[in-house]
Amino acid sequence: MIIAGVEEAGRGPVIGPMVMSIVVIEEKDEFKLDILGVKDSKQLTPKKREELFSLIKDTVKDFKILIITPEEIDNAVHSDESNLNWLEADKTVEFINSMKVDKVILDCPSNNITEYKEYVQTKLKNSKVELVVEHKADENYLIVGAASILAKVTRDKEIERLKRKYKVDFGSGYPSDPFTVQFLEKNYDKYPIFRKSWSSWKRIALNKNQKKLFDFKV
Q: What DSSP designation does 132 have?
């Protein structure tokens, strides 16, 4: 049986892309991931994730990595027909439809597992693909943990690439990071790296624009 795991990294940041990955392996070979030391990426150090990144790619049957831009995320969030969950689901469907797999394990981003599973299932070209959809699948399944590592390492590399490209340091990119918030307040309208559908960006943009309007009236 050929199994696959799908996971994302960077779902919550206000800066930078979200990255998704699918990893495919023969079920009988999944133990090799355990031998490598594969775990949920959040349980590993950056150095260990980097080490595993190449090892996983060399060990598995197939993999794909997808970088989803802030613009694409904003379009989904602002859409009347989509949102971040459905965007992730649609990308998951693209992954599965592009590969030959028998079983796919998904780390569900939605509170409603049944609805999310049905959404993905109805869009699959091969209705015989078995879907396992759970919360914390990255902690409970090696194949999803492997996908989380590929996604996380790629996301981290993209963040460093953006910092080099624009010659700035914005911290982690998460709204909980004071350094990121400080950067956002000063540069919210200067670079195409922000998720403008995020409340943290909209709040700052609204305050800045209101201040400009007030200054103009005075």
A: E
Q: Which amino acid type is present at position 54?
A: S
Match 């409603």 to its residue by tokens. Answer: 112
Domains and CATH numbers, the chain: 2-164 (3.30.420.10), 168-217 (1.10.10.460)
Computed on alpha carbons and rounded to an integer, the radius of gyration of the chain in Å comes to 19
What global pTM score does this model have?
0.93
* CA 155/CA 72 separation, integer angstroms: 16
Taking a C-beta distance cutoff of 8 angstroms, is the pair 154, 21 a contact? yes
- The Cα 71–Cα 56 span in angstroms is 30
Per-residue model confidence (pLDDT) at position 211: 59
CB atoms within 10 A of CB 127: 7
Q: Which candidate, 134, 144, 94, 92, places its Cα nearest to that of 114? A: 134
Q: What is the largest CA-CA distance in the chain?
A: 72
Q: What is the DSSP letter of 102?
A: S
DSSP string covering 95-109, please?
Answer: HHHTS--SEEEEE--
Which residues, in sequence order, are CB contacts of 102 under 8 Å at separation 6+? 1, 2, 3, 128, 129, 130
Q: What is the pLDDT of residue 202?
A: 94
Cα 8 from chain centroid (whole Å): 3
Q: Which residue has the tokens 């940041």?
A: 13
Which tokens sit at 131? 């879907």
Q: Which residues of the chain have pLDDT under 50?
A: 214, 216-218
